[in-house]
Amino acid sequence: MSDCEVVTFKETVLVECCTARGVLTQGELFLRPLDTAGRGERLLDVLAGRAFVPLRTGAETVVFLAPRHLAWVRLGLLAALDELDPEAEDDASSAVARVVVELAHGAVLEGTLRYALPAMTRRLGDYLERAPAFFPLRTADWIYLLNAAQVASITPLSESR
User: Fold this and answer.
1) What's the whole-model pTM score?
2) Cβ(134)–Cβ(147) below 8 Å
């Protein structure tokens, strides 16, 4: 390696992925680690910005997944803290909605959406109209990064604004 070559290491995050057909796959997705400015790569940004993402499913096996064909990516709650909206998490007046999500392939998830919007547009529908390509749904143990294009319906159970 010459003096001018830079080696970039990737961090991995353990995930479970569900395809649009309902097929489950477990493995590690690769993320760029924190740089000197304290910025790293969020999984939400990777899923929204790439045509294919590498998932290591075994010691020597890598599968390239197309995020547009994923229904969700699930992470353990502690591993996914960076995936949550810091503005919504830090704002005591952010809105919280308990919802049931039906996915296009028929699976149903129940969890919480938390979001920060101006007071006049703080309804669940307002958030969903502005939701990014992948958005987090929190359960007691998991964070699901839902693919908005694979969501068939969202039914609110309760909402606080």
Assistant:
1) 0.84
2) yes
